[in-house]
Specification:
Elements: E1 4-7, E2 22-25, E3 28-34, H1 50-67, E4 75-82, H2 88-98, E5 106-111, E6 121-128
Parallel strand pairs: 4-5
Antiparallel strand pairs: 1-2, 2-3, 3-6, 4-6
Helix pairs in contact: 1-2
């Protein structure tokens, strides 16, 4: 087996650039940042709605994790990118509901000047498979 394995699923959007949805390396899965693209329609149907965008992003991440044999309980680190930190409270509530597990992952949250396709939020993660 190769030291790294590409993770790909049709249940999450195709990458919008030269990268993969995720890479499995050893016992780790490194998920690329997900934005609110609906994988069925291959478009963003909720642009500008921070709640709906965040829900779609987390659905996309969950699909990529599942494809790699992981689940949200395996996530050890996330990074949230927001174009406006005033949206943090809303995103944090949805994120908290999603990661409503005994040991939620470590996390960073940063404000950025812009994100691909004009979205308001992007989230990436790392999972550990034991």
């Amino acid at each position: 087996m190769s030291p790294k394995q590409v993770i790909k699923t049709s249940n999450a959007p195709d990458p919008v650039g030269p990268y993969n949805q995720a890479i499995k390396a050893g016992d780790f899965i490194y998920c690329s940042g997900q934005i609110a693209i609906d994988p069925v329609l291959n478009e963003i149907t909720c642009l500008g709605d921070i709640e709906k965008e965040t829900i779609q992003v987390l659905k996309n991440l969950a699909a990529v994790l599942k494809s790699g044999g992981a689940k949200k309980e395996d996530v050890i680190k996330t990074t949230i990118y927001l174009t406006d930190l005033s949206n943090f409270k809303i995103v944090n509530k949805i994120y908290s509901d999603f990661f409503n597990i005994e040991n939620p992952p470590a996390r960073a949250c940063v404000e950025v000047s812009s994100l691909p396709k004009g979205v308001l939020v992007e989230i990436d993660c790392v999972a550990f498979l034991d």
